[in-house]
Specification:
By secondary structure, the protein is α+β, with helices and mostly antiparallel strands. 32% of the residues lie in helices and 15% in strands. The protein contains seven helices and seven strands. It has a five-stranded mixed sheet. A hairpin with a 4-residue loop joins strand 1 (111-116) and strand 2 (121-126). It is rod-shaped, with a radius of gyration of 38 Å. The termini are far apart. Bound molecules: FE2/S2 (inorganic) cluster.
């Protein structure tokens, strides 16, 4: 095999040899490209790594986002399996097993007069839907966030006494007994059980 350095030196010492040197270099390049460099790409192990990682990460039991009910009692039920009891969650997702304060047969639905103080209006609310939902049906922009009784964004205050004398909460998780006694309610999970006046947007 010709040494490229020797070829270059020969070309410098003997200028007419430049042409020969160029030909020899071209031949070397040609031979190298035909034989290859011997380099081979490493095996693609990305699938193997992914499989290993998947087997190493333990499976979780978090419910799929699509399983979250919005507004109804099912949402609160969906949170229960996180505590370790999967059976209740499955029952509620089935639909037929749930029974919340809003599950009232159509012919047993009652209506109550409810005064919305800040809106300056009194409307009839049914006992099978939360106050928040029915207020929104009136076109009012009432405050809310989770719609599952897990924050206080939708809180309101019933001035006439303990809120649970007038509404039934479906799994509210934020108000303490004293706050309920003081008239506070979470309108997203509160179902009317009597007539009352409420100030919306009032949190304890
Ligand atoms: S919106 Fe969160 S508790 Fe009602």
């Amino acid at each position: 095999m010709l040494n490229p350095l020797a070829i270059v030196l020969a070309a410098i010492v003997n200028p007419p040899a430049i042409v020969l040197a160029a030909v020899a270099t071209l031949l070397m390049v040609l031979v190298t490209s035909v034989r290859g460099t011997g380099w081979e790409p490493t095996t693609d192990i990305s699938d193997e790594v992914l499989e290993h990682r998947a087997s190493a990460v333990p499976e979780t039991e978090f419910p799929e986002p699509g399983n979250r009910a919005i507004g109804g009692g099912g949402g609160g039920g969906g949170a229960i399996p996180a505590g370790g009891d999967g059976e209740e969650g499955e029952l509620e997702e089935g639909g037929t097993g749930s029974s919340g304060p809003g599950d009232i047969p159509e012919d047993e639905v009652e209506y109550f007069e409810v005064e919305f103080v800040k809106q300056g209006e009194t409307v009839e609310l049914s006992n099978d839907q939360p106050i928040l939902e029915q207020g929104e049906d009136e076109g009012w922009d009432l405050p809310y966030a989770c719609r599952q009784g897990q924050c206080v964004s939708c809180a309101g205050r019933i001035a006439d006494g303990p809120s649970e004398d007038f509404v039934e909460h479906d799994n509210q998780q934020m108000l303490e007994e004293a706050e309920i006694d003081d008239g506070y309610t979470l309108t997203c999970v509160a179902y009317p059980r009597d007539s009352f006046s409420i100030e919306t947007g009032e949190a304890p």
